[in-house]
Amino acid sequence: MDNTLIPQYTQLPAGLLDVAVENLHQLIPQPALFHLSGRHDDTLFVSVLLHGNEPTGFLAMQRLLQKYHQQTLPRSLSIFFGNTQAARLNQRRLDGQPDFNRVWSGTQLADSPERQWAAQIVDIMRERKLFASIDVHNNTGLNPHYACINKLDNEFLQLGRLFGRLIVYFTHPKGTQSSAFAELCPAVTLECGRPAQQHGTEHAFEFLDSCLHLTELPNSAITKQEFDLYHTVAQVTIAENMSFSFSDENADLYLNPDLEQMNFTDVSAGTRLGKINHAGMPVLAKNDDGNDITTQFFNNEAGQLVMTRPAMPSMLTLNERVIRQDCLCYLMERMQLST
Description:
Distance between the termini: 45 Å
CATH topology of the largest domain: Aminopeptidase
Number of domains: 2
CATH superfamily of the largest domain: Zn peptidases
CATH architecture of the largest domain: 3-Layer(aba) Sandwich
Helix content: 10-25%
Largest sheet: 12 strands, mixed
Structural class: alpha/beta
């Protein structure tokens, strides 16, 4: 692999502390990795802007860097700035780009320059003493703040609990940054609500700042009273050959305009999600192994898309571009750890 594929720096570019996210591409025009030394060598890795329309991670990191601009960081910090070109246009990804949070180890996407730099970043960070990995995201739809983990080890749960009570365990989709770094250190994805909400930036900043100061993660066993744990059991996408809309009643699938209100609520069997105007099933549900389990959750009942079993949706959004680029939602079920 070309060692110059992913640019690496030990100093931040001038202007970074004040630049607007839509202008960040002028300072960091391509994905880049920055290594900043701190008092403790064990490094905190943080990735921001893997999706260009999710700026909270960058805004929180910008505030963190402003705080320590004239002082030594409590611990070493490696920062990966992802899709700055998509951030310029406030898009999840540009047309022709792969999803920057699907190109990491275990990905099912075809080889690409993005897959190569993702692999290189993992190799680079494997050589460092890592404290933890944090990937900061936003939700496009109406969702609470929550943490996602890929392993049910105590240190992963402790890291997620530091962010809040809601923790989601997932192993699908494949190729995410957190799943790649979970093989190196405790890793978490932060879901910080909708973009441009000040509370999301504050929450992410406080969490990042806390991780810089922690000497170690709590090693006491986390108890079930301390958190609410969910397991993602299905990713739901719109069939490629189907049109869908929240406003056009003649689309192949006319979705309920209030759909995102169902996020993180217990949805009962029999709940109607939308009107079907086309023969066939307009959605596809896949489990962690990528197997089709659509009929376990959905049915076409007299032209209505109906849930056939209880579940808890997350990441429902009214943004049709995001739905087509990613998915309609994830379905979760409550999970209890064995004692």
